[in-house]
Design a protein that fits this description.
With 292 residues, the chain is mainly α. The protein has one domain. The protein is 72% helix and 0% strand. Helix 4 runs parallel beside helix 7 (157-187) and helix 10 crosses helix 11. The longest helix is centred in the middle third of the chain and has 31 residues, at 157-187.
Length: 292
């Protein structure tokens, strides 16, 4: 009896991110499992989502805002007004990206035992890592909104939409890079070290702790344009526009064409990286079980 080759499929290869959506009940289970495993035996549990960024904020605020004079004050009238909100609005977004990419890049190797025993869409593991990071992002966002309200926050609909767009940009970027490095890490474990360096660079290669005007003044128009092609830069500035700017007198300048040009560009770049990550993942996933 002959078998048509059209009925055959390469083993170990799933249907991509579309299959993750179809099996979203498994995604929920993986997210719950990751949260339970992470905080097993922990005294503070989910409260670490508050403690870690809080300590990080205090350190950077004292070092940059007070010692280096980035905070606007009577002694330093040229600093940023409400620098604490400016700083924290960038920290919550960059922390989400760092945690999502760091965990997604290790997710396949860390779940090697499960992958070798049963088949399920392998994209579930990097995507679940991004969702877990989103769960940790939410408490930080609540604190940010509370601080903004205390400072007189009155955002417009456009500013809230910019915040959602900035989060989407960073989420797509983290998912795409997580798929890419999660697959490559199975074959080359050195990629974990590369991701760690990438995360360190990402924190300082976007205007989380400093103003974008400082970059424009130092680099000039051409290199500042290159700087804006970084989707994280656009995401962070979108958060500043949504959360920090409404707490000031509104006179602070925005990066040129932030919403009209750079946000669509950043969405396209992040979507392109997501596509590259998915294609690379599908090409490499067939031998995950053997390599692990």
């Amino acid at each position: 009896m002959s078998v048509s080759t059209e009925e055959l499929a390469r083993p170990g290869v799933g249907g991509g991110l579309a299959e993750v959506f179809r099996t979203r009940f498994l995604l929920k289970l993986l997210v719950r499992k990751e949260l339970k495993v992470r905080y097993r035996g922990s005294v503070l549990g989910l409260l670490w989502s508050y403690v870690k960024p809080g300590v990080q904020f205090i350190v950077f605020y004292i070092a940059l805002g007070v010692f280096l004079g980035l905070e606007n004050s009577p002694r330093n009238p040229g600093g940023l007004p409400n620098y604490a909100i400016y700083l924290f609005s960038g920290i919550v977004l960059i922390n989400f990206f760092n945690e999502a990419l760091g965990n997604a890049s290790r997710s396949i190797v860390n779940n090697g035992g499960l992958i070798k025993k049963i088949y399920l869409p392998r994209e579930l593991f990097p995507v679940a890592s991004v969702w877990v990071s989103a769960v940790h992002f939410f408490p930080q966002l609540v604190i940010l909104v509370g601080a903004c309200l205390y400072a007189g926050w009155h955002p417009s609909f456009l500013q809230l939409a910019a915040a959602l767009g900035g989060f989407a940009i960073v989420g797509l970027l983290a998912t795409g890079l997580g798929l890419l490095f999660g697959a490559v890490n199975v074959y080359f474990r050195d990629s974990e070290n590369f991701v760690d360096m990438l995360l360190m660079v990402a924190t300082w290669a976007s205007p989380v702790m400093y103003a974008w005007t400082m970059v424009a003044d130092k680099l000039g128009e051409f290199w500042f344009t290159v700087y804006q092609f970084n989707p994280i830069t656009v995401g962070v500035e979108s958060f500043h526009y949504a959360f920090w700017l409404p707490t000031t007198d509104g006179s602070a300048p925005l990066p040129p064409n932030l919403l009209s040009v750079w946000m669509p560009v950043a969405l396209l770049v992040s979507a392109g990286i997501l596509l590259i990550g998915q294609l690379t993942f599908r090409r490499l996933e067939g031998r995950f079980a053997q390599e692990l």
